[in-house]
Amino acid sequence: xxxxxxxxxxxxxxxxxxxxxxxxxxxxxxxxxxxxxxxxxxxxxxxxxxxxxxxxxxxxxxxxxxxxxxxxxxxxxxxxxxxxxxxxxxxxxxxxxxxxxxxxxxxxxxxxxxxxxxxxxxxxxxxxx
Length: 129
Known about the structure:
By secondary structure, the chain is an alpha+beta fold. The chain has three helices and five strands; from the N terminus they run αββαβββα. The protein has helices spanning about 1-30, 60-70, 105-129; strands at about 35-45, 45-50, 75-80, 80-90, 90-105. It is rod-shaped.
């Protein structure tokens, strides 16, 4: 009698571990592929590191040539549900802010919930009585 109760407890614990592992597997390989949707985009003004006066001389020409030949680089950062993208070179930089959100499929969440309810009902019917 005691051995039968211990066997039921071990089966219950292993079933719970199996359901947890299946949830981790599904969450890792299926739900992690959510689509990112841009809700809003704000582009800020361009900031110049040094203003070049409109005087035609060799010094200003060299500054313009340096700006022209500098490579365009990008850096990004996220804060809560905002993505900030900055494009810059040696003379200027501009930043854009994107509000992002994820788009999920409610049918998948409902299907997983129904599968969990059915699994729990079967386990209760088989081992809980």
